[in-house]
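Aim 2, interim progress: modelling of the zinc ion-bound target.
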Amino acid sequence: MRAQVLTAAGHPLAATELPAPHPGPQQLLIGVRACAVCRTDLHVVDGELPDPKLPLIPGHEIIGIVIEKGKSVDRFNLGDRVGVPWLGWTCGVCEYCTSGRENLCDRARFTGYQIDGGYAELTVADQRYCFAIERYGDVEAAPLMCAGLIGYRTLRMAGDARLIGIYGFGAAAHIVAQVMRHQGRRLFAFTRPGDAGAQEFARSLGAEWAGGSDEPPPELLDAALIFAPVGGLVPAALAATKKGGTVVSGGIHMSDIPSFPYRILWEERVLRSVANLTRRDAEEFLALAAEAGIRTETVTYPLADANRALADLRNGALQGAAVLIP
Ligand SMILES: [Zn+2]
Ligand SMILES: [Zn+2]
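Predicted structure of the complex, ligand included:
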């Protein structure tokens, strides 16, 4: 099979011909139809996350067809269309797994990080962490698997906030904006200063106001969601948030947060992060996405152009989500 392989952090992916993987007892062999490119892939390729499997096939927003199954597989049949997310395996016995927080499992393994992912023609995945994909096309479903799932978990951590500011208007934000509109919430969008294209994109998805992250919003926020990996946005978001409001960081990696005066955190503002996803998040979100008629904006690239897709994401040169097609 053809695959794009990371051999060392900081190096471009290499087009490689590999033998087809064999599914273990609980695994599906999946013919990849589409794999979206997540900012986490950039962090892995750039060496900003510790200890990836090497060599590694990145990619954790996979949509494909089951073409072979392991002997214990009972949730899917040959020909089924499935989605494979970031959460690839959990231990089931640690204090997190047994308290509804498998996203924090001490021994969790992640697709496209410790497990080979979807930048390939074929992949194997544990059936217990895969989801049936109905209703959506392959390409439009792919960004739901992480941008959608993690975006949804991030939004959930904002509780019942009415007016929410989103910092960084990329793949996750463009999905969250539609969920917010469905839920009747108000949205302000903060982009890189001067990024008129992203601001227009945000307005087209229901943002009442869109401006640069260096601008104060016209009204204080009930909550803020940060999707851009820029630590300086944390004090900016706290300063833009009302008393008792919550600032949620949805990314896996961020540049250092600069020091800030205690008074912008005081008055019971909450600052928290989101890590990974649970299978329950995925089930809730996929049902909600269908009910809310969530659409994804995608830019497709052939698998062979994975490095170009990563570069475009790094440079903010695309709107919505990049999706690789093998
Ligand atoms: Zn566990
Ligand atoms: Zn991701």
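The two ends are 10 Å apart (CA to CA). The CA atoms of residues 76 and 127 lie 7 Å apart.
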